[in-house]
Protein: Prephenate dehydratase
Amino acid sequence: MKRIGYLGPPGTFSEEAARRHRGNGEGELVACASLEEVFARLETGLLEEGVVPVENSSEGAVSVVLDMLAAHPELTVRGEVVMQVVHSLLVPPGVKLEMVEKVLSHPQAFAQCRTFLRQKLAGVELQECASTAAAAALAARCRRPWAALAPLSAASRYNLQVLIPAANDCPHNKTRFWALGRKRVLSPVPPCKTSLIFGVRHRPGALYRVLREFAIREINLTRIESRPSKKGLGDYIFFLDFEGAAGDPVVKEMLDVLTEEHTTTLRVLGSYHVEQE
Ligand SMILES: O=C(O)C(=O)C[C@]1(C(=O)O)C=C[C@@H](O)C=C1
Structure:
């Protein structure tokens, strides 16, 4: 059976995303201690797929995932899951808001609940954990008035009470996850998107020339992001997503033009079906 890794322990948003990616198909969900571990297990073949967060509607790119993806040329994007993310403030039974001494969570959750924390828990210590569910598990076993920002479903799993059901600052807080693997999806079911990583030469209009190829073919871009190439200051690579599949004749022809004329490197991360909540 296919093994699908995610940032654990059970009860994270990533686990829910992995579950949705699996759908009615077969697959064993495997909890990993960190995102680095998901990539390491994909590399060594201990996992066939890994579901990782790539972008949040309020915080932007999950840079660590983009960088690890760039460092793993064998990996492709096999699917996408977009999920509504609601952080709840969970506490051990009997703990009230004014009693909370410390709040535990993943750094992304803290960032997504910044205003809430400032307004309702000003001055309370924050402790970063490997994931939201790791935070809930620690709050449950510490025997202190410590709260966790975690998915609502983590409350029953870790015997915690829901003090504030929705603590995120943006009501429409969404995170996009990618299912990564070594095998490319050859004929993704429409609607699909394709993702690329590319580099350009340092010359006037280099990025414009790439984007122009999309514009003249009326291909809709859905994201462009730059990340340092790590080769030197001011040297970047670009992550770009667009609507369509790499196998579409128009897209195929455009990718050839980009490779031959406008980029220094171009990697097609994959074409994949887009799942919406
Ligand atoms: O800690 C979790 O529950 C995760 O799945 C990680 C993660 C992330 O890294 O973005 C996933 C979704 C939310 O944006 C907050 C945290």
Notes: The longest strand covers residues 265-275. The domain at 193-271 is CATH 3.30.70.260 (Alpha-Beta Plaits). Residues 200 and 263 are 5 Å apart (CA to CA). The mean pLDDT is 96.
